[in-house]
Amino acid sequence: MSCRIAGVRLPTPLVLASGVWGTSPTLLERAARTGAGAVAAKTCTLAPRRGHRNPTAIDWGHGLINAMGLPNPGAAEEVELLRDAARRLAALGVPLIASIAADTVEDFGRAAAIVSEADPALIEVNISCPNVESSHGEMFASSAEAAAAVTRQVKSSTPIPCLVKLSPNVADIAAIARAVAAAGADGITAINTMPGMLVDAESGAPVLANGTGGISGAALKPIALRCVHEISGAVELPIIGTGGVITGTDAVEMLSAGAACVGIGSAIVFRGENAFSSILEELKVWLAEHGYRCLEDIRGRTHRGAGAAVVVTNPPPVPGWEKTRA
Ligand code: SIN
Question: Is the CA virtual torsion 151, 152, 155, 158 positive or negative?
Answer without folding.
Answer: negative
